[in-house]
Amino acid sequence: MAQDLVLDSRTDSAKSWAQGLYIAHGVCLLFTLGALSFIPLIFNYVKRPESDGTFVHSHHGWQIRSFWWYVVWMVVGWVLVATIIGMLVAWIVFLGAWVWKAYRIIRGFIALNNNEAIG
After folding, report:
1. Burial label, 33 (beta-carbon count in 10 A; 0-12, 13-18, 19+)
2. What is Dmax (Cα atoms) for the chain?
3. What does the radius of gyration of the chain's CA atoms come to, in whole angstroms?
4. CA angle, corner 45, sides to 58 and 60, nearest 5?
5. Would you tell me the crossing angle of helices 87-113 and 56-81 to the nearest 10 degrees?
6. Rounded CA gap, 108 and 102, in Å?
7. Backbone angles phi, psi at 74, to 5 degrees
8. Which of 1, 7, 20, 60 has the smallest number of Cβ neighbours within 10 A?
9. Does pTM surpass 0.85?
10. Rounded distance, CA 8 to CA 88, Å?
11. 3-class secondary structure, 115
12. In sequence order, which ranges of the chain are alpha helices (DSSP H)?
């Protein structure tokens, strides 16, 4: 017999928001290469205090950190594009950053669905 975890309404609502934000970050990454990810980021900052004291709080931090590190690697890539020698390396940085962000979105979404906190 399987046991189901019953979440209180506050945690369930926070979890639903975090799931939607993972999806929004994923859609932004897929269709705009992350250029519009600032929109779900704003919601992460707004909704994070409401999830304080729950496992969902760690997911907002995870998404926020993922966004800002992705921005850092995109800036590094564009700085490399500005140099002749770094142009070839820049595409590796861009691809690596995109794959890394996709991994973080997928890993976070799976952990959230398993009702687990994340790093």
Report:
1. middle
2. 63
3. 16
4. 20
5. 170
6. 10
7. -65, -40
8. 1
9. yes
10. 51
11. coil
12. 9-32, 38-47, 56-81, 87-113
Long-range contacts of 47-52 (CB under 8 A, 24+ apart): 47/14, 47/17, 47/18, 47/21, 50/10, 50/13, 50/14, 50/17, 51/11, 51/14, 51/17, 51/18
Among candidates 115, 108, 112, 111, which has minimal Cα distance to 29?
108
What pLDDT, in 10s, does the model give residues 50-76?
999 999 999 999 999 999 999 999 999
> What is the torsion angle, in degrees rounded to the nearest 10, for the CA atoms of residue 106, residue 111, residue 115 and residue 118?
-120
Average pLDDT along the chain: 93
In one letter, which amino acid is 81? V
DSSP 8-state code for residue 87: H
Closest to 102 (Cα-Cα) out of 29, 43, 36, 35:
29
pLDDT for the residue 88: 85
Given a contact cutoff of 8 angstroms between Cβ atoms, the answer to whether 67 and 41 are in contact is yes
